[in-house]
């Protein structure tokens, strides 16, 4: 029998209202690499500045309505 050691690095991001799927995956991916850089068997969770997202959405809505 051979024994194998397995480690895991996880990036977690929760979907925010009106956030694109691409942005969600990007945030989770960034946290995964942060977890990898922090060492083995780590989980990093993305926090969201809701005011920043709301500002981005408002800016996009202004461009669309122009």
How would you summarize the topology of this molecule?
Elements: E1 9-12, H1 21-38, E2 42-45, H2 50-65
Parallel strand pairs: 1-2
Provide structural commentary.
- The chain is α+β, with helices and mostly antiparallel strands.
- The chain has one domain (9-65).
- Helices cover 52% and strands 12% of the residues.
- Strands 1-2 form a two-stranded parallel sheet.
- α1 links the parallel β1 (9-12) and β2 (42-45).
- The protein is elongated and about 50 Å long.
- The model has no long low-confidence stretch (mean pLDDT 80).
Query: What is the count of DSSP helices, taking H or I runs of 4+ residues?
Result: 2
Helices and strands, in N-to-C order? EHEH
| Beta-strand residue percentage | 5-15%
Tell me the overall shape. elongated
The chain-level mean pLDDT equals 80
Low-confidence stretches: none
The neighbouring-strand order within the major sheet is 1-2
Largest sheet: 2 strands, parallel
Using only CA atoms, what is the Rg? 17 Å
Q: Could you estimate the helical fraction of the residues in percent?
A: 40-55%
Oligomer: single chain
Number of domains: 1
Structural class, by secondary structure, is alpha+beta
What gap, in angstroms, lies between the N and C termini? 68 Å
Number-wise, the strands total 2
Features:
alpha+beta, two-stranded parallel sheet, 52% helix, 2 helices, single chain, 66 residues
């Amino acid at each position: 029998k051979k024994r194998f050691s397995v480690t895991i690095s996880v990036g977690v991001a929760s979907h925010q209202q009106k956030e694109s799927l691409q942005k969600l995956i990007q945030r989770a991916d960034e946290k995964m690499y942060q977890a990898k850089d922090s060492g083995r068997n780590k989980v990093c969770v993305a926090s969201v500045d809701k005011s920043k997202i709301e500002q981005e959405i408002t800016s996009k809505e202004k461009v669309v309505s122009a």
